[in-house]
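Subject: Re: docking follow-up (2'-deoxyuridine)

Dear J.,

Thanks for your patience while I sorted out the input files. As discussed at Tuesday's group meeting, I've set up the holo structure prediction with 2'-deoxyuridine included as the bound ligand rather than trying to dock it afterwards. The sequence and the ligand SMILES I used are pasted below, so you can double-check that they match what you have on your end before we go further.
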Amino acid sequence: MDELIAAAQKARELAYTPYSRFQVGAALLTKSGRVYTGCNVENASYSLTICAERTAIFKAVSEGERDFIALAVVANAPEPLAPCGACRQVMVEFAINRVILCNTDGQRRELTLDELLPYAFNERFLIGDDS
Ligand SMILES: O=c1ccn([C@H]2C[C@H](O)[C@@H](CO)O2)c(=O)[nH]1
Ligand SMILES: [Zn+2]
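The structure tokens for the complex came back this morning:
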């Protein structure tokens, strides 16, 4: 896990954050043993910004990965970062059950997906289309 956190720290340096100046890095470990990293990428049209977590997850999925072990996230914050709701929902989609949240001071908090997003919406609810 130390290696995964180090990869997230390194990815953070690539964050494109001219608007918020808040840099976030993420690193996702697959069951196949590969690590996919991500950073946040902002846009002048602010809402188009993508978080570091989703960058890493979408990079991995778009390379054919579906099975994940853990995601590490690092930011310069007063306490370990709390991922946004959108990223939590995407973590649920791919059952990323081990999430290690860190800050640049070395504080860590490890949470399960159920702790991060209890009573989550998932594919089990999609039983019919009412047509
Ligand atoms: O978990 C988080 C929270 C925020 N951000 C980014 C989005 C935006 O670029 C900046 C400020 O919200 O931080 C992430 O990448 N991950
Ligand atoms: Zn997010």
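A couple of observations from a first look. The radius of gyration is 15 Å. Residues 17, 20, 22, 24, 40, 42, 49, 51-53, 81, 83-84, 87 surround 2'-deoxyuridine (ligand 1) (CB under 6 Å).

Let me know if you'd like me to rerun anything.

Best regards,
T.
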